[in-house]
Amino acid sequence: MRLLAALAFALGVIVASPTLADETPTFEIAIKNHKFEPATLEVPANKKVKLVIKNQDPTPEEFESYELNREKVIAGNSQAIVFVGPLDPGTYPFFGEFNQATAQGKIVAK
């Protein structure tokens, strides 16, 4: 019985280990001159990913995507984190709500 309890405890520690949390792939998107860079971002399909969106403009911008079901306002000269996925293979457009004419991008899950 002790062995079983020790094994269950060990598995719990492994599951809660910070190393597993660090396995979430992280990608950066910059906002410069009211444009997303890169405009096309490739991510692994069927896996949750972390987007670090850095707004390098002095004005706020909103990262928005109907297909990803996400919207996040990012103040000027700051950053935000957005988690998406797991995504089926495909293309997922996003845009900047405040500068839609120029702030366009897409995530391609492969």
CA gyration radius, whole angstroms: 18 Å
**How many beta-strand elements?**
9
* Class by alpha and beta content: alpha+beta
Mean pLDDT: 87
Secondary structure tally, helices: 2
- Are there runs of 5+ residues with pLDDT below 50, and where? 3-19
Q: What percent of residues are in strands?
A: over 45%
What is the CATH domain class?
Mainly Beta
CATH architecture: Sandwich
Report the biggest beta sheet as strand number plus sense, adding barrel if it closes: 5 strands, mixed
Cα-to-Cα separation, first versus last residue:
46 Å
CATH H level, superfamily name: Cupredoxins -  blue copper proteins
Helix content percent band: 10-25%
The backbone outline, from C-alpha atoms, is globular
Integer count of domains: 1
**What is the succession of H and E elements?**
HHEEEEEEEEE
Using the coordinates shown, work out and report the CATH topology. Immunoglobulin-like
User: How is the largest sheet built, in terms of strand order?
Assistant: 3-9-8-5-6
